[in-house]
Each structure stands twice: as structure tokens, then as C-alpha cells.
Amino acid sequence: MSATIAVEPSFLSRERTIAAPSFNRWLVPPAALAIHLCIGMAYGFSVFWLPLSRAVGVSQPIACPAEMGFLTSLVATGCDWKISQLGWMYTLFFVLLGCSAAIWGGWLERAGPRKAGLVSAACWCGGLLVSALGVYTHQLWLLWLGSGVIGGIGLGLGYISPVSTLIKWFPDRRGMATGMAVMGFGGGAMIGAPLGDWLMRQFATASSVGVWQTFVAMAVIYAVFMVAGALGYRVPREGWRPAGWTPPAANAMVSSKNVDLDVATRTPQFWLIWAALCLNVSAGIGVIGMASPMLQEVFGGRLIGLDTPLAELSAAQKTAIAAIAAGFTGLLSLCNIGGRLAWATSSDKLGRKVTFAIFFALGVALYAAVPTFAGLGTTLFFVLAMGVIISMYGGGFATVPAYLADMFGTKYVGAIHGRLLTAWATAGILGPVLVNYLREYQLASGLPAAQAYNQTMYILAGLLVLGMICNLLVRPVAARHHMVEQKTSAVSQAEAPALTQTPTAEATTSPVLVVLAWAAVGVPLAAGVLITLQKAVVILLH
User: Fold this and answer.
1) CATH number, domain at 383?
2) Structural domain containing residue 217
3) Taking the model in full, what pTM does it have?
4) pLDDT value at 506 more than 70
């Protein structure tokens, strides 16, 4: 005679995150935002480059000997790092983000968002602590390992952890749900960069630039928010649906069937969407990386009322122009964030394929028109065009998870999205390299700096034409790729008791908790927007 022993699922298991009937789905987006606003600081790490470039000299950088080798520079303690060396952390962020999301996306679907969110917090905050040790001991390799590698893995897991969860909670508003979360990644730098700058000023002394202390403080702050966000994740029961919502009528471009992860990545639809995202991001990220110098070189003295090229201005005049360019960069950040929410939400009405078609068609027109706008003598049309371009860059990131859910169903969409993010890693190399090398080629050919970006804009427009073709070729996934769905009787014993209580309507309890959760992420985000607007307003006055 044998007896079956029931095993209680662990606290970190997916089964323990199945929502109770009283759970309010509007608690999930702020949980996702809490994590995305923290890891989004990856966009703002440039605030540390200049202080780190004088970590030894403090007031002035101490240059390393010209004959010092690469390996020696990684462990040298008597001279300062170059900004070009520090910039590799930025590259590592996004390469590791794409790779880790692709590698561990399948594990995330099995483990659930809570465990993935906590691992993300451990990696991102732990990476900051390792970087703090690297600054304290002046070991460059520890910065690359800490924030670049370990932190980059945290970025990937944190970025995709809420995707499938939000899509399942908001089947009626897939685009809006993922747009709210992904918006946080774009907005993280608006909060983190001013916070990092303020902390460095508080910790700075005559013998320290205050960076390692800032890393420790930010690791602690981020750990609180990220752990709270991870613990706030819940997944809906099988068959749950919002109150009063019924699945829409059959739509060829919105499948109700699921496709297995490995099968999905072998379909032409996956690779066409991969290419469309890669090309859209390559164009946008190339512009983001050169936004500040582009504005300064294209308009030069006109930004301060002088008809003088940038190279002929005085140091004080260049400083004034640099401040205006910083405002322009901040304005683009707002467009990036706003575009993530606005375009993704619009895609719920327009459809994902139509939304991506707008990105490419409008993008081609605007990129091709930028050289003309630059020659009009005013920044207005140039800034507006760039703002719309960057909004579509962010909108592509926010819309693509819902696009994947429409194509491949919701069961493995988080893992499929993780593999698709290798397109981001590819674009992170392709876009900046294309823009930077084309600029150098134009200057070497004797073109004035103000015209060095014209050919670049036309080539980026050409990339978007290719992206438009890829998007137009997307068709519904063939029925032979659909999974044979398991029947309810096959549900695991650990989950079965919860599934029998499946609610048929959205819970409306805990309104106070919902308000507090949104305030916890909304107040810092609003503060970041206000700071950015204050810095950006000067660009609108020229």
C-alpha cells in the first residue's frame, strides 16, 4: 500500500504566484515598472564616464603611459581610464541583454516572473556592487564584469520577465500593457541619471569622485524597488478573462493558438519580425547615439543666434551650445518614453502589422527630409522630425511583444520575445557603427561638418525600406505549427486546486493598494520627466 505525499510548491515557484480571486490586475503594471525603471538606468550610465575618467586624479585625469598594454591597463591603479574603455560597459549591457534573454527565456516561462525578477534584481544590483569594488580598487575588469556582464544578464531577465504575464492579464489591451512596462525601461535614465549625479556630489571629497559610494547607494535603492516589483508579480488562472470581455471575432493576424518556442523560431514569421525590429532599431539607435553632436555640428552657431560654424566658435560659446544639445537629448528621451506607450496602445486599434507599416513609411519620409529640415535655418522642423523618429524607435520595442503574441499565442511569448531581442543586440552594434563610420568618411572626404550626416540619413531611410518589405511579408502562422493543447485533466496537481476557483471577472478590490503601487513608481517617473523638461525647454527657445 502506498501513499501519495503532497509537496508544497516553494515560495519562488510559478504555482505560488497564481493570483487569488480578489487580485486586481492593475497591480501588475506597477510591479513591472518598478523593475524596468531600475534596469533602465543602463541608458543613463554615461553620467559616470567623466567622473570615472578622473577617479585617480580626482580634479584632473592622470593619463596612462602610451606604451601600456591592454591587459596591463585592466589592472593599472596609478592612472585613469579612458572614456572609450568605460564605454565598453554600455556595449556589454545590450549585447548581454539580448543574449541572456534568448538563453534563459524558456527557463523564465517555466520558473515564473517572481523568480526571474528576483534573479534580475540580484544580478543588476550585485553587478553594481562588483563595479563599486572595481572603482574602489581601480580595476577596470571588475567594472566590465560587474555592471557589463553580470548587470547585463540582469537586464535581459528583468526586461522580459513581465511580458507574457502582462499579455495574459490584458488580453483586451495587449499593446497598452506591454507599452506601460517597456516605457519604464526608456524612462529609467530620467530618474537614475539625476539621482546618480546628485549622489556623486554628496559623496565627493578632495580624494574621491564619489562614484563607488554612489554605486553602493543605488544598488541598495534599486534592490528595494526590484524585489518589491518581483514579489508583486502574479499570473492569472487558466481561463481567466476581464469582466465583460469576450475574445474578438476571428482575425487572421491575431491567432488564438499557441506555437512552441523551438517551432516559433523556425518560422519565417519570427525572422521577418526579427529583421523588421532590427532595422527599425538600427536606424533609431544610431541617431540616439549621435543626437548631441549631430545637433551641434548641423546648426553650429545658429543655436545661439550666430551664423558661424561650430569649429569657429569660442570655448564659452561651445559650452552654451553643448547645454542646448543636452536639452535636445533629454527631449528625445521623452519622445522615446511617450512613443512606447502611445504607439503600443494605438496598435490595439490599428493592429501590429499596420503600426509597424506606419513606423517604416513615416520613418522613410522623415529620415529623407531631415537634411532639408536642417537647411531651413531653424531647429523647429528638425527637432520635431527627430522626436517622431525616436518615438517610433521606442514604439517598436513596446509593440513587438504584442505582435509576437498575435502570431504565436501567449503561452511562450516571453521566451519567444527573449530570442527576438537578439535583434536588439545586433542593432546595437550595426546602428552606431554605421552612423559613426559614415560620419568619419564624409568628414575625411572634405564635406563640412554641417553636411556630414546627409548621406547617413538617406542610408538609414534605405534600411527602413528593407524593414517595410519584411513587415509586408508577414503572414499568419501555418496551422501545422500550432500546438495540440492539453486538456484540463492534464494540469499538474500543484496547480489544479487553484484552477477550480477560476474567476470569470476582473477583481475590483484593493483600490488603495493599487493607488499606492502606482504612486511608488509614478512619483519618481513624474519627477524624472519634470527634470528632463526643465533641461530640454531651452531647445524650444531657439
Assistant:
1) 1.20.1250.20
2) 14-62+73-241+508-513
3) 0.84
4) no
